[in-house]
Amino acid sequence: MKYSMAWLSYRRLPFYEGKEYFRKIYVQEEDEITGTAVYELCRGARELLGIKTVVIKLPEPFGQDERGKTEEGIYLLSDSKGPVGGGYRIAEENGRIRITAAEPEGLLYGSFDLIRLVQRGVSLRGIDRLKHPDNPLRMLNHWDNMDGSIERGYSGNSFFFRNDRVQVEERTEDYARLTASVGINGVVINNVNVTEKATRLITGEYADSLKRMVKIFSKYGIRLYLSLNFAAPMELGGLETADPEAEEVKAWWQEQMKETFRNIPSLGGFLVKADSEGRPGPFTYGRTQAQGANMLAEAVRPYGGIIIWRCFVYNCTQDWRDRKTDRARSAYDYFMPLDGKFEENVILQIKNGPMDFQVREPVSSLFGSLKNTNQMLEVQIAQEYTGQQRHVCYLIPQFKEILGFHTYCRKEEDTVADIVSGRSFSHKNCGMAAVANTGSDANWTGHDLAAANWFGFGRLAFDTSLSAEEIAREWCECTFGTDKAVVYAICKILLMSWPAYEKYTSPLGIGWMLTPNNHYGPNVDGYEYDRWGTYHRADHLGIGVERGKTGTGFTQTYLEPNASLYEEIETCPEELLLFFHYMPYTYRLKSGKTLIQHIYDSHFEGVEDVEEMVSLWEGLKGKIPEEVFERVMLRMDHQLDNSAEWRDQINSYFYRKSFIMDEKGRKIY
Ligand code: GCV
């Protein structure tokens, strides 16, 4: 086997009560996506149940009368009054399972859901499930480069690009299957840092291979998107400017888009990183982010395209001596004044927190503050700052907290989940995106357990009401089967992993403290005297960034009561205390412990948690495939060493800074 099929690696079920349903599939429509649904059901039946399925075309029209007289089997029924937007209903009655949806995508998602239920051994008798995707857009953002490398990639090379060429191969289809099976409907294949060859992806040069990719994606209801280079008019068109207000620039983009969409008519649109970390953007010309985004939006509008404009804009050449400039404020300060000024086909894509995917950050204050602008949540399942797929770090509990955060932008329906789903402000162009964690490794994600984040992101973006526990269990049962001991141990490891990572790395929301550039392993002062705006401000008396009114004022970018909650030390959630406030080491937390003692204790505990995770994994020997067991074991052994390194460096650093002994007298160096 060249590579695994992760949670779609079907293993034959020795006994399954609902086998008979799968002998016949009745289908009404003959469109491509419904065809895929049929193919997937047949494949599932063959591989899971050892059944050869007969596919029967239903007569047109197929109304209520006809439905009464049907035979046993599975029915894929399109019904304009059925669930819309990719939603579906699965209902069983008298030996007939009906999957009903208004659109073919719904039939596909319903079919994958049905297969998942079989994989998990769930009885289908009397089942009645109605599902509507919560988020209209459910996207993966790949940071893949044309040379085949992946920025922040931890599972091999790109399977989209190699040697400056677009690759379309068997793996493209398997990727589409996995991705669509969890409800993802949009994929950006290239890095947001668009340089050199990647700038040319919008030209005809790569059109043939991109078209082949689109053909595969479309079968699975996935739209292709590209990242673009804001300076393309200069780099490709030879213009002297990329000023969004210059007529020649507008004309260049309009002409280019005509060609791009002629080549790839179903292209969804573009993701843009502008004015960030050295990328070009409208600021160069004294223009706003809205002027930049709207100019592009106008060029793609005739083709139904959208512009997804990232809010990750900040000053990355800060002076560490400057205590007023605050990277956390940056996106808010640039984008808030522009609320309501973006075109309807622009979506602002906002990272979950105001810094950069740390293990703990507050939710970005743009959520809830922006009311008249389409917005999307961006999270990162590539574990750049959370152990780089060498550590287990199941991130779905973090995403649940983010989605559940009350912004107080309205009396009801005010959470991040409400906002990005479009419920709060009736937006249609909105949703969730994740920076992807896949690559050419045989298990797709480097660490086998990291696949739970890919699966989990898709499931959560589709259904934000699912709990992190439910998703972990689903993933585990689909991937490893339903043996209770296996499911218990793996779910426990997953659910312990994010809190453990938080405990043994940087304390109480301060973040960073890791090796510059590669972002792996501890280095407390690695970024402290650098230009990136990521400081902990520790001295011999205390630690933390003062972001209250007397500091950078970032607390005041939140709506009330959150602004006051974060401002006041007594009410500030302790897991974020050092993000918002500079605190003395002797400050007593609610637990009664001093801040310094909390740092020591949590670091010892974090490593103990990893020890427990390791022993849970050891208990799985012989219960899961040997190869997977060994591969994960190796990574877990490393995680244990690396977490101890974190513990020792952090504890020693703060002991040496504060000169306060550990009350428990443990070894600190
Ligand atoms: C793609 C962080 C990462 C960069 C990444 C950037 C972004 O700074 O370290 O590698 O660039 O975020 O989100 O654009």
Automatic annotation (TrEMBL):
GO cellular component: extracellular region
Active site: E277, D356, E384
GO process terms (BP): xylan catabolic process
Pfam families: Glyco_hydro_67C, Glyco_hydro_67M
Residue stretches making up the Glycosyl hydrolase family 67 catalytic domain: 118-444
Residue stretches making up the Glycosyl hydrolase family 67 C-terminal domain: 445-666
Coiled coil: none
Keywords: Hydrolase
Record keyword Hydrolase present: yes
GO molecular function: alpha-glucuronidase activity; xylan alpha-1,2-glucuronosidase activity
Identification of the protein by name: Alpha-glucuronidase
Native source organism of the sequence: Anaerocolumna jejuensis DSM 15929
Lineage start: Bacteria, Bacillati, Bacillota, Clostridia, Lachnospirales
